[in-house]
Structure formats: structure tokens, C-alpha cells
Design goal:
Uracil-DNA Glycosylase, subunit E; six-stranded mixed sheet; alpha/beta; 8 helices; globular
Length: 231
């Protein structure tokens, strides 16, 4: 299935009544500073280069970020961190992501999330993640050039392993463990990099610093450059 076809299925999805009701309510009530916005209010598809060798998997759209703008990691502080790093290491044409029509383009990179609807409290239920997981599985299958995957947070880490069919291939003790900066080679030549999520809770407390964050994407760039050099 093509990425545009997957995106259409995601946007039309109504499998999780709790999440759909929450997203619609947020879109209706809005945040004071965004009262002039027509909120997206629907599930948010992935975004990026169909020929990407780098996949970035986050948790879920933010209520007043992706749920407002309609593009993953767009319009919130986590997106500021992500797209600035992607620009710094040559994956994006600009360091900011404010709205769907702001001219942002990704090169060799695709960005998505484990859940496609903004969840209350940023906490999707396990059943909601499971219902959303086939979309990530389809995207992984469509991204045939993938070499490096960066997962942002434990939920995204587990979500990718499950969607990629890796989770059940290992015993619990053998599964690639989540931890900031951990690197795990997977079958098919894929390398998995883990990172703390660039949430305000992590960035404001110093749990995740710019240096730590940049180190993850510097490693991703080096791995891709090394892979290209061997072709």
C-alpha cells in the first residue's frame, strides 16, 4: 500500500471513540492563543520522504500541536526540537514546523507516531495503541529503503518493535531495551536508536538536553553515511 493511501486510511479512522471524542472536543474548544485556527481535529498521518532511510517514531499528536495543525510534530515545542535537529543534520530544509503549508520538506526521513490521535493526558490506552499499530506496520512496509529508526520514548520504542514484527521474535530478556542513546541492530540491516521524547517535562527538567538530543541524530547521520559509503 502506498503512503498516500495509508494516510487517507489514517485520517478516516474512527476505531477509538474515546480518542475521537477528545480530539473533536479540543478542536471545538481550542486554546486561547489559537482561537483563530480551524483545528484539524482528525487522526494525523505520517509525513516525509517516501524514499526515506531514516524513520522517526513519536508517541502521539499533541492536542494543540498536530491535532491543531494536521501534521505530525507541528506547532508545538516537541516539534521545535525535532525539526531543528533534522535540519541541523541534513534531513529537513528548514528548522521550524508551524503549519501544514509552511514549506517544510524532509529528505531521506519520514516521521510518524505510535498513536495517530491526541490522547487525554498524552496517555493512549494499550487497546488504542494496538488498534493504531497496523498503520505503522503498513508504513514500515511502504518505506522500503529504511536503514535507521529513531524511537522517541518507551511507548514509541515498544510500538515500533511490535509493528515491525520484532517484539515476538525475542524473549523478554532478549528484546532491545529502551534507554536514551541505546543502539540495537535488528534483522534486515535496520539499526534502532532510542531517545527520550522531547516533551516539555523532559526538556525543561534537563532529563533531555540539546547535547543528548543532537547526539542521537548525529549517530543516525553517521550510520546512514556509512551505509551509503559501502554501496
Amino acid at each position: 500500500m502506498s503512503l498516500p493511501a495509508i494516510a487517507r486510511r489514517i485520517v478516516a479512522c474512527d476505531q477509538c471513540p474515546r480518542l475521537r471524542a477528545h480530539c473533536r472536543r479540543v478542536a471545538r474548544e481550542k486554546k486561547r492563543e489559537f482561537q483563530d485556527w480551524a483545528y484539524w481535529g482528525k487522526p494525523v498521518p505520517g509525513f516525509g520522504d517516501p524514499a526515506a532511510r531514516l524513520l522517526v517514531v513519536g508517541l502521539a499528536p499533541a492536542a494543540h500541536g498536530g491535532n491543531r495543525t494536521g501534521r505530525v510534530f507541528t506547532g508545538d515545542s516537541s516539534g521545535d526540537w525535532l525539526y531543528a535537529a533534522l535540519h541541523r543534520f541534513g534531513f529537513a530544509n528548514q528548522p521550524t514546523s508551524r503549519r501544514r503549508d509552511d514549506g517544510l520538506r524532509l529528505t531521506d526521513c519520514y516521521v510518524c507516531a505510535a498513536a495517530r490521535c491526541a490522547p487525554p493526558g498524552n496517555k493512549p490506552a494499550p487497546a488504542e495503541l494496538a488498534r493504531c499499530r497496523p498503520y505503522l506496520t503498513d508504513e514500515i512496509a511502504a518505506l522500503t529503503a529504511l536503514r535507521v529508526v529513531v524511537t522517541l520514548g518507551r511507548i514509541a520504542h515498544e510500538g515500533y518493535l511490535r509493528a515491525a514484527g520484532v517484539w515476538d521474535a525475542f524473549t523478554p530478556g532478549e528484546r532491545p531495551a529502551f534507554g536514551h542513546g541505546t543502539v540495537a541492530p535488528l534483522v534486515g540491516g535496520i539499526v534502532l536508536l532510542s531517545s527520550y521524547h522531547p516533551s516539555r517535562r523532559n526538556t525543561n527538567t534537563g532529563t533531555l538536553t540539546r547535547a543528548m538530543w543532537h547526539a542521537v541524530f548525529r549517530k543516525a547521520r553517521r550510520l546512514l553515511d556509512a551505509a551509503a559509503a559501502t554501496v
